[in-house]
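Reposting from the mailing list since nobody answered there.

I have sequence plus structure tokens for a pair of proteins and want to know whether others read the tokens the same way I do. The first protein:
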Amino acid sequence: MVNIKQAYAQCEAVTAHHSKTFYRAFSLLPPYDRQAIWAIYAFCRRIDDIVDEGEKPHEQLQQFEKQWQSFLAGHTEDDFMWIALRDVFSRYDMDDEPFWHMIEGQKMDLTVHRYDTFSQLLRYCYCVASTVGLMLLPILAPNAQDELKESAIALGEAMQLTNILRDIGEDVTRGRIYIPREVMERYGVNEQHIFFGQVTSSFIDLWEHLAKEAENRYDDAEKMFFLYPLSARLAVKGAALMYKSILHAVREQQYDVFTTRAFVSEERKKALLQQIGGENVEVG
């Protein structure tokens, strides 16, 4: 039987391996809160891996959903992620709704490979990313959850739009184009341009249009950051700044999102954390 310390350690390893940006930002939190974040990330990662890498993703996601239902009924499997998550649910006043919506969003990736409108894309962004922010609110700001809900949703949308803009080339290899058809038509870009990785002036204009949508949402989310307790505020603002910096990294590589994956260097991440926290904030 995996003990709780081992369970959290494995959740941390999953987080550190798969999202250095997320891991770096939330390392600023107090230990118990930090561990809870790792457990929730591991939950989300488990579903994501089923959808992107599972041999039989439909069946595996269905099985995962049954495990989730069993978890909510009080049963805990001998699995580090479920063990850690059980401890999280015992410590914090967790809401299961965003977890269900996350599963809904991952199901969309199995059946929906194109989006006609921006509003349809935003629903997807909410399900796979804004839900994460809502999952984290009971940990980060237990006394201001209602006031911060819209901010968390906006930040999730911004981050997912950033992911989409960074990963256009990677997604197309999986047969997915997340850029809405209405936006592509507006800028005269078609699927062939995407499949062949053509960085034209029209593609750049389209990319910048969606980047502005993301940046507006970062700005909207940040207006309410003052409601977070200090340690959580630094972590959330750090995550937002580091993700937003991915957009600048894409610009620096001349919008080549087809052959190169943009990233924010460790030096840049450290500088951003020092910028928001000052010299007295531990960033190592």
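The second protein, same order (residues first, tokens after):
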Amino acid sequence: MVNLVLIGAPGAGKGTQAERLVRDYGLLHISTGDLLRQAIAAGTPLGLKAKEAVGSGELVPDKVVIGLVEETLADKAEAQGFILDGFPRTLEQARALEGLLRKIAEPLHHVVVFDIPIGELAERIAKRVAQSSSSGVQVRSDDNTEALRRRIDDFTRATVVLLPFYEERQVYQGC
């Protein structure tokens, strides 16, 4: 069993690698982006709070994201471990995750950080948009140049404090 956190900017490959790990090792994949989209679509109380933030162009508040992850981990199926994709993104979220894992008696084994050059991230997002468009899948509203720049800036500002946090805990893995 292994419990992982995948951290990386939009388009870094977290979802792609998570899918492979799920397929190869049967891990439970918890994507905060997917959780947020599902909660918004379902109109749950946390989803309504997330929708308000997304609609105003703001980051979803930590308490909302933490609540969604907590609900999911508390209800998790018997799996061979889990992958958190896109969570935590802030120090508050990292501390909340530590508390939650203590509460459910689960260790965090590794935090993998994807360090991809910005130019390559833009190419990957453009490719994702093209693939979605050509296959008839709805393009994500945040898959555009301006949103990508903002998301990368937000990611960089918020997550820079996570590296020393996880280095101290000896679970950080860069790639």
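Reply #1 (J.P.):
I read it the same way you do. Helices lie at 14-25, 32-42, 45-55, 62-74, 91-103, 118-135, 145-159, 162-168.
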